[in-house]
Amino acid sequence: MHLTVSLYAALLGLLYAALTARVLYLRGALDINLGDAGHPTMLRAVRIHGNFAEYVPFCLLLMYLSEVQAAPQWLLHALGVLLVAGRLMHAYALAAAKLAPRVIGMISTLTVLLVSCGYLGFVQLR
User: Fold this and answer.
1) Using CA atoms, how far apart are residues 118 and 74, in angstroms rounded to an integer?
2) What is the pLDDT of residue 122?
């Protein structure tokens, strides 16, 4: 039974819901129906939400495929924690306009992507 990646998918789903709620709140508070209307806070919120939607599903898919290919539990948990931490750090950094945590968040996300790809490639070579 494959449950490890499901845990991280659920946690990341909750984070995605929170990011969505923030965008919706800002749309109401700033009276912005579509786009960002040139408002820097709205632009950041939309990009945080969009960046999450661009990277997280693919990372989770690669992690799930690794789990199906019998990746070690320690690896799946390491990737899951790294992805959750990286996405939290990235969201915080963009919202607060801080570069260093944003870079760390993206490096964390890309590490999950590349390690998962590497594991799946290794499995295929065995």
Assistant:
1) 16
2) 86
pTM above the 0.70 mark?
yes
The one-letter code for the residue type at 111 is: T
Alpha-helix runs per DSSP H in 4-72: 4-30, 40-68
Q: What pLDDT, in 10s, does the model give residues 117-126?
A: 999 998 877 7
Backbone CA torsion sign across 40, 46, 51, 52: positive
Q: Domain range holding 16?
A: 4-125
The dihedrals phi and psi of 19, each to the nearest 5 degrees, come to -65, -40
pLDDT, tens only, 21-68: 999 999 999 989 998 899 999 999 999 999 999 999 999 999 999 999
Question: Quick one: residue 34, left, alpha or beta (phi over 0 = left, psi -120 to 50 = alpha)?
Answer: beta
Amino acid at the residue 58: F
The pair of three-digit structure tokens given for residue 48, joined into one six-digit string: 């945080």
Q: How many domains does the chain have?
A: 1
Residue 10: which residues within 8 A CB-CB, separation 6 or more? none
